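Input.
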Amino acid sequence: LQVPCAPSQPAAGSESRRFANKHSKKALKASLTLGILLGMFFVAWLPFFVTNVTQAVCGCVPAGFFDVLTWLGYCNSTMNPIIYPLFMRDFKRAMGKYLPCCRRSGEPRPSAISLSMRNSNSGPRAATSLKNVL
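Output.
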């Protein structure tokens, strides 16, 4: 005996594959972003820490070279705000909401009240709403 396939089974299978494919792309992009951030961190700070240990052991590192490596690490810290918007769409959207230079022309500016309500993890309360205060 053969049991006929229900027509909804192939659609459910393709939907589940599409869902898994979408999440695997997001995971791959998140891994790539994290890899770039960590790679840049190690490239910038590892020479500083190796030189710092070398300086502690033998004292043979010139002060100018040590300063250059310190500033290389500082440059890494300035690169993070550039890297995040390049690779993370959610970060870019969040920054666009709050920074006037990054906001699109059609997006309204969030009000202080909406920000405080959003951050308080609660909805409007009758006793503390703006209408009752005024």
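The mean pLDDT is 74.
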